[in-house]
Amino acid sequence: MKIKLFFTSMLAIGIFACNQPAQENQEEQNTETETVEEETSPEVFFVNISDGDTVTSPVLVQMGVNGIEVEPAGEEKEGYGHHHIIINGTYLEKGTIVPMNETNIHYGKGQTSDTLELTPGEHTLTLQFADGLHQSYGYKLSNTIKIVVIE
């Protein structure tokens, strides 16, 4: 009788011990998932073209964002801004005002697409997000790709 009670007790302890780490592991996984979701940062991206694509001119460019809102320029509001495309250039440091010229195209009305007339050859396109006063959000809200334009 003592032996049977001993084995029954050991079986109960074993079952309890086996279930314990699984519950702790599940709690750890839930914590990790929550942390990843909290660390998700805003991003900008080209919707319809990718790095290395070969295209013809005029080039349709569709611009996307996640985690930040697009609105027309005019005032500085946290969490809002608008797109710029820098042709054959790179991102602008955070706080730098995006120049307005033939290679720095502003979409201050909140546009999310455009067609670009580009000459045949390789081109770099940098999508740069900026606040309502055209101040760059820097590297974190930029995306640079290289494309080849053919005739």
Description of the molecule:
By secondary structure, this protein is of the alpha+beta class. It has 2 domains: 1-40; 43-150, Sandwich (Immunoglobulin-like), CATH 2.60.40.10. It has one helix spanning 2-39; strands spanning 43-46, 54-56, 59-66, 69-70, 80-87, 104-106, 113-116, 121-130, 142-150. The strands form 2 sheets. Strands 2, 4, 5, 6, 8 and 9 form a 6-stranded mixed β-sheet that branches. Strands 1-3-7 form a 3-stranded antiparallel β-sheet, with no helix packed on it. Mean pLDDT is 83; it is low at 1-37.
Number of domains: 2
Q: Count the E strands.
A: 9
Strand content is 25-35%
CATH topology description of the largest domain: Immunoglobulin-like
Q: What is the average per-residue confidence, as pLDDT, rounded to a whole number?
A: 83
Q: Report the CATH superfamily of the largest domain.
A: Immunoglobulins
Distance between termini?
92 Å
**Overall CATH architecture of the largest domain:** Sandwich
Unreliable segments of 5+ consecutive residues: 1-37
Defining traits:
disordered N terminus, 2 domains, 9 strands, alpha+beta, 151 residues, 3-stranded antiparallel beta sheet, single chain, 1 helix, 34% strand, 6-stranded mixed beta sheet, Immunoglobulin-like
